[in-house]
Design goal:
Chain lengths: 570, 463
């Protein structure tokens, strides 16, 4: 079975883009060095396929037969390192090419995300992009940005290039991005003018504190609230910080009518005469009157970035995006410490991170390699885990079935999945800067709520949207999705090999659970699927045989991907 | 496609309802609510913070001049047809004008539909409503002698406070708590459709201990392909088995997220079945609604109300949200269009209730994160606090401005800075009369709004 699947993978070795540096010894030609043989790199012990599958659910958009076997053999540490050196997918080149040949569509940039998530090699990086896009939110639902795919691609590339870099650099790039300038309304923000009664726009000043750096209340390093429920900032801080983000606009001229042709795809520039000359005070920092914009922004970003809240505030949200909705404080503390120190020690003794505060590689490693993330789920409490959002469930299905050359442009159902009759979310199209759901969302009337747990994803997984997801998976599984061009690929799975084993229910389920549910299935779900398949016998006439084999495969897949076993990650 | 088995779906929904055992409350007020006839409350939430200063404008010369002192320059941003020049405003016929001396008022020129309703006595303005711990003014705000409400000016917290009287993280909303009391009083034999939320935004307004929001998509009733289509299965019995799989009735799941997910699917399937069958064979309303998303969402509310007999409900609370109001920039471009849309949609909704002959039984009321500052920031406005709200319905004593509308000046006793208003009516004073009209008894109203007695009289909204 495994070999049958492997032959289809285009990217047999993509999890190991560099050969493991097993031969670390000095070498015969090392005549110039006087140092002893460099030490052997730490071992990356192989893991079970179930453990590999769990890692891939967290660290990629979903396991496939090929990647499960590769990761199991290479071990988690080497797989992680290998992904760090995988070249980054950038979105601008394809968008520019479409622009050049007149085929650019408003959704071109964002919808190419489906394809890179389903088929790209830099899985971990794009998974981080997706996580960051839910914290440092911009959205194509914005009235202006919806017609600016090039600006969207510009922003997506900032996230992609900095995904394994440093959070301070990321903050600076997004602050100067015209995409964020538009989204949070500080592009062309002018200094105050008492004569005309204007004050600087406060939107970015508020949201960069509330959502991108420090949050609303003072935190301990482990993410718990400091005693006294102390608010981190007040209205005066917002007003003071708002002065910093004045004077930024596009090349060509400050006013919108003077915008250069590339206005929304290059960093914003500073127009000194529009920048506030007043003293800018916030959070205990005073930037002297007359300080220029670039220095003011630098000082302000440094001051926000150095706040002790940032590590736990961002760290906890990253844990929620990758691993579990309610991490215990000690877990948050370890991730925050990795953020603060810029380093993390992998389980095999290898150190990652450049040692500078805000290192995202170290932070991500802390999220993924923590004992809480890696332990056997049967040892975890029943309060551990999370509901996987519909987009991630869909992409896992696509990767598990190894959709060859995924092409979302040919799938009209993927053009806009924001509706409740669809996935109730679409990457980069949140309703507001507060993302699809809030980190502290408590689902009313739920079992999680009764135990004081949060479940952000239940904010969009509810009575009106649950059927939308089922309908989408029904259509994709039965290949009933409208394709613009029937001769081109879309997200259509090829069932040939699964159909070959459809007569053997155990083997069929074994192959499917291997890629969809870590090789396991609860008795409840298994019994229902087995019953259903037994009531769908394979017929004997050639045409009917193909149809019934196909029906069995589709039924089994549909029933698995709509089960709690598949939807919940633990 | 096979026909829906109505009996099957209704009985399934009935079974679900029966398993939700209604707990007895110790308060002893359980049976006090009035559940006769039919009543509906419709909450319309303007997400982002609607600028009330641009909805209710001063009209008398002296007040209008005060406004132009502050916003005059900003008014140059409007197009000719949207102009806020006094010549482009139509004064409201305010029945309680004596409360305001020589002051006169007008709605924005983009709120014609609502002006008509006001002049017909079907719409009332409730002035300067917002969260308060205790009555407060500029002096007590600045000197700290009265406690400030929490997390002012923060979108998500203020939305939560309007819906739940608590910052983000609240579990219950006052709409859900009202619904709980109605369920206690057996207002609805099938509780599933007591609270209905239309559109995408998830929130706690309709969350109670028993009551929960049944969410209807903006697209209306969604077909359940697994059950209704033959994409996968031709046999009806097998589709029923598939439906049972999707309902995942299992006592063995331990993980709380698995249990919640399974419960969500179960409720979705059961409610979708009953809801869809309630709409089978019904005749549509004649009233036309605007094509805007809000227009269609309010049309959905009207259509659900129109099926109240098949849905077997006597008390319902609806929630509809509409976004785009956080007008930090482009306010002169964006807000007029938003006002056109919500004004038209509200008017259509009222007309639909008249068509159904129940205008006096349906009350629509508005909420928003907060109002905005009077001082502009260039091409927009920033977060405020107190805001004007609107109540619409046949039972409303309309054509009046209830409460206070502070003068369009700065540094007065309700100005916290730049024309961000300290409320003169608390959320409790605004919401309690709505709950009372809906049928709650006096003690029940106090249980939902425990802080009510810190404030003066309730807003006197109803005839």
């Amino acid at each position: 079975m495994r070999s049958g699947w492997l032959k289809r993978g285009l990217s047999v070795l993509f999890w190991l883009s560099i050969a493991s540096c097993g031969g670390g010894g000095g070498g015969d030609d090392d005549t110039s060095s006087s140092s002893p043989n460099p030490p052997q790199p730490p071992a990356s012990p192989p893991v079970t396929t179930a453990a590999a599958s769990r890692f891939l659910v967290q660290a990629s958009f979903g396991p496939s037969p090929a990647t499960i076997n590769q990761v199991a053999a290479a071990g988690l540490e080497d797989s992680f390192l290998s992904q760090l050196s995988e070249p980054a997918t950038l979105y601008m080149p394809a968008v520019k090419a479409l622009e050049a040949n007149g085929n650019l569509h408003p959704s071109s940039a964002i919808n190419s995300f489906w394809d890179s998530a389903a088929g790209g090699r830099d899985q971990l990086r794009q998974r981080m992009v997706y996580a960051l896009s839910q914290i440092l939110v911009i959205s194509a639902e914005d009235g202006f940005l919806q017609g600016q795919p090039v600006s969207q691609a510009y922003y997506m590339d900032i996230l992609s290039r900095n995904a394994f870099g440093n959070y301070r650099d990321l903050l600076e790039e997004i602050t100067y991005s015209p995409t964020m300038g538009v989204y949070l309304t500080y592009i062309r923000n002018e200094k105050g003018d008492p004569a005309r009664g204007n004050m600087p726009d406060e939107n970015y000043a508020r949201e960069i504190m509330q959502l991108f750096t420090i949050g609303l209340v003072e935190l301990n390093n482990d993410g718990t609230r400091r005693a006294g429920d102390i608010e981190t900032y007040d209205q005066d801080d917002v007003t003071g910080l708002a002065r910093v983000f004045t004077g930024l606009s596009h090349p060509g001229g400050f006013a919108e009518r003077n915008a250069a042709a590339n206005a929304y795809e290059v960093p914003m520039i500073i127009y000194d005469n529009a920048h506030s000359e007043l003293e800018k005070s916030f959070l205990g920092l005073t930037i002297p009157a007359g300080t220029d914009a670039a220095t003011s922004i630098d000082m302000a970003l440094d001051h926000l970035f150095e706040h002790p809240n940032v590590g736990p505030f961002i760290g906890r949200q990253l844990i929620q995006r990758f691993v579990t909705s309610n991490p215990e404080p000690a877990y948050v503390g370890r991730v925050a410490t990795a953020f603060n120190t810029g380093e993390y020690l992998l389980p095999n003794g290898q150190r990652v991170g450049a040692g500078r505060r805000g290192d995202l590689t170290a932070t991500l490693a802390a999220v993924l390699f923590d004992q809480n993330a890696r332990r056997d789920p049967d040892l975890a409490p029943n309060t551990f885990g999370k509901v996987r959002e519909p987009v991630l469930r869909f992409l896992h299905w696509a990767r598990a079935l190894e959709i060859a050359d995924p092409n979302s442009r040919n799938e009209s159902l993927l053009d806009d999945t924001t509706g409740q009759s669809s996935f109730a979310q679409h990457p980069f199209r949140a309703d507001s800067v507060f993302n699809f759901y809030r980190p502290n969302f408590v689902a009313p009337g739920s079992d999680t709520a009764a135990q004081d747990l949060v479940s952000p994803e239940l904010g969009i997984v509810h009575e009106a949207s649950a059927i939308g997801y089922m309908n989408m998976m029904m259509q994709f599984t039965t290949l009933r999705t409208p394709n613009w061009n029937q001769n081109l690929s879309g997200f259509d799975p090829d069932y040939t090999e699964l159909m070959a084993v459809a007569d053997d229910i155990d083997e069929l389920l074994s192959q499917l659970t291997f890629v969809l549910t870590h090789g396991e299935l609860s008795n409840t779900t298994r019994q229902r699927i087995v019953s259903m398949l037994e009531e769908t016998p394979i017929r004997t006439t050639p045409n009917e045989e193909i149809q019934t084999r196909r029906r069995r495969v589709q039924l089994a897949i549909f029933m698995i991907v709509t089960s709690p076993d598949f939807a919940i990650q633990r | 496609m096979t026909k829906l088995n109505r009996r099957l779906f209704l009985s399934a929904a009935g079974a679900t309802a029966a398993t939700g055992i209604l707990p007895r409350f110790a308060s002893g007020t359980a049976q006090a609510a009035n559940t006769s006839g039919y009543r509906a409350l419709v909450c319309l939430f303007f997400a982002g913070g609607l600028d009330g200063h641009d909805c209710v404008l001063p009209y008398d010369l002296s007040s209008y001049d005060q406004l132009t002192n502050i916003r005059g320059n900003y008014f140059n941003n409007y197009s000719t047809s949207d102009s806020r020049a006094r010549s482009n405003l139509t004064p409201l016929n305010v029945r309680n004008a004596s409360n305001f001396g020589t002051r006169q008022f007008a709605f924005s020129p983009n709120m014609e539909g609502m002006r008509d309703l006001f002049d017909q006595g079907r719409l009332a303005v409730v002035g300067n409503v917002g969260p308060l711990e205790n009555p407060m003014n500029r002096e007590t705000y600045l000197n700290g002698s009265v406690q400030r409400p929490p997390r002012l000016f923060s979108h998500n917290d203020q939305r939560s406070i309007w819906r739940s009287l608590e910052p983000e993280g609240a579990r219950l909303g006052w709409g859900g708590q009202i619904a709980d009391l109605m369920l206690e009083a057996n207002a609805n034999p099938e509780p599933a459709f007591t609270c209905i939320s239309v559109g995408n935004t998830p929130n706690t307004f309709l969350s109670g201990n028993m009551a929960r929001a049944y969410k209807v998509g903006s697209e209306g009733v969604i077909r359940n392909l697994a059950v209704e289509s033959t994409f996968l299965l031709f046999d009806e019995q097998k589709r029923e088995n598939l439906r049972q799989h999707l309902r995942d009735v299992s006592t063995s799941r331990q993980n709380l997220f698995e249990r919640d997910f399974a419960a969500t699917n179960r409720r979705a399937i059961d409610a979708n079945g009953s809801f869809a069958s309630a709409f089978t064979g019904g005749s549509p309303l004649n009233t036309s609604f605007p094509e805007s998303r809000l227009g269609q969402d309010l049309a959905t509310v009207a259509n659900v109300i129109n099926r109240r007999i098949d849905l077997n409900v006597s008390r319902q609370i609806f929630y509809v949200g509409v976004g785009g109001f956080d007008t930090h920039s482009r306010q002169a471009i964006d807000l007029p269009r938003l006002q056109d849309k919500f004004s038209d949609a509200i008017r259509s909704f009222y007309l639909a209730t008249e068509e159904m002959g129940i205008a006096q039984d349906v009350t629509l009321f508005t909420m928003s994160d907060f109002g905005r500052g009077l001082v502009a920031n260039g091409d927009g406005t920033d977060h405020g606090w107190g805001n004007h709200q609107y109540v619409v319905g046949g039972a409303v004593d309309g054509g009046r401005i209830i409460g206070d509308v502070p003068s369009p000046t700065l540094e007065h006793s309700q100005d916290v800075g730049r024309g961000q208003l300290i409320p003169t009516t608390s959320i409790e004073q605004f919401a309690a009369p709505l709950a009372r009209w809906f049928g709650l008894s006096g003690s029940e109203v106090n249980s939902v709004f425990p802080s009510l007695n810190r404030f003066g009289p309730e807003a006197d909204i109803f005839v």
